[in-house]
Design a protein that fits this description.
Dienelactone hydrolase domain-containing protein, alpha/beta, 34% helix, 5 helices
Length: 166
């Protein structure tokens, strides 16, 4: 099944590295989402059909096609994507927040215990955005100064990670 997708490259005439690709793995609302608009859907019905069993073959197919075109480097950003498989070989940044039923404080602490303190050899860092809710970095309410600031900081942090490691 074809999924909505797009390819973005710099404007014509601008040189760029053609052997690296950033995959943006969108959250449940998908690529069509405008920052402040989120359609209502039934999360419990959606979630079982979007596990690694369903999503990994799509990602592998895209990566396979890109490899056939000469791409050798891949990075991924996945706000609220979760469950990334065992193909992570670089430091893994994670951005969390106060109100997230899918990744509550106890789960955040568990992730830190499992991945932090050098346990994940490539490196692990979890940033925490106080006062924000799940999805703040993608579809947060930009009229809320706390959310707006956190979204900007999360974006800058992620871009810094790409510049440093990718």
């Amino acid at each position: 099944m074809l999924r909505p997708s797009y390819v973005a490259t710099p404007p014509s005439g601008v040189e760029y590295t053609k052997d690296k690709v950033l995959l943006f793995l969108s959250d449940a609302w998908g690529l069509e989402l405008r920052n402040s608009k989120a359609p209502v859907f039934h999360w419990p019905s959606w979630r079982p059909n979007h596990t690694p069993v369903q999503t990994r073959p799509l990602i592998d197919a895209v990566m396979g096609a890109l490899k056939a075109e000469g791409v050798t480097g891949f990075a991924a950003a996945g706000y609220c994507f979760g469950d990334l498989p065992n193909k992570i070989h670089r430091p893994a940044p994670h951005q969390s927040c106060t109100h997230n039923p899918a990744f509550p404080p106890a789960s955040q602490a568990r992730a830190d215990a499992i991945l932090g303190g050098g346990a994940f050899a490539p490196g692990y860092k979890r940033s925490y955005y106080e006062g924000c809710a799940r999805g703040f970095a993608v579809h947060g309410d930009l009229s809320d100064p706390v959310v707006k600031k956190a979204k900007k900081e999360a974006f800058e942090e992620r871009m810094g990670w790409f510049k440093r490691y990718f």
